[in-house]
Design a protein that fits this description.
The radius of gyration is 15 Å and the shape is globular. With 113 residues, the protein is of the alpha+beta class. Helix content is 15%, strand content 36%. The chain has a 5-stranded antiparallel sheet. It has a single domain, classed as PAS domain (Beta-Lactamase), CATH 3.30.450.20.
């Protein structure tokens, strides 16, 4: 089995839930982002309980349809990219991963051919 210890200190917040919406993993950055809500104690909780409406319904729809959702937000003066996508195990839908990554104020953009 591969060593996944690199993810613990990876600078993006990564939260993983199973197909029923139970949070099964979060890295250190995610635990810090959700510290006021319990941090690592959220593992085992329902991801739906962590979202108010209308976000809860949107997440339920995304999980039912296994659709990726990507958007940006600004919170506490920081711009972030939010990437929510289904994950699969042996080709079978297994749940959702959310990656939250701070977007630098100045960031180069390249168009490659």
């Amino acid at each position: 089995m591969a060593d996944h210890s690199w993810i613990r200190e990876f600078p993006a917040a990564i939260t993983v839930c199973d197909a029923k919406g139970t949070i099964i993993a979060m890295n250190g950055a995610a635990a810090k982002v959700f510290e006021e809500d319990g941090g690592e104690k959220l593992v085992g909780a329902s991801v739906f309980d962590c979202h108010p409406e209308p976000a809860r319904s949107k997440l339920q729809e995304m999980m039912a349809s296994q659709q990726t959702n990507v958007y940006t937000i600004e919170k506490n003066g920081a711009r972030k990219l939010i990437y929510q996508s289904p994950w699969f195990e042996n080709g079978k839908y297994a749940g959702f991963v959310e990656i939250s990554l701070v977007i630098p104020d100045e960031m180069p953009h390249f168009v490659r051919g």
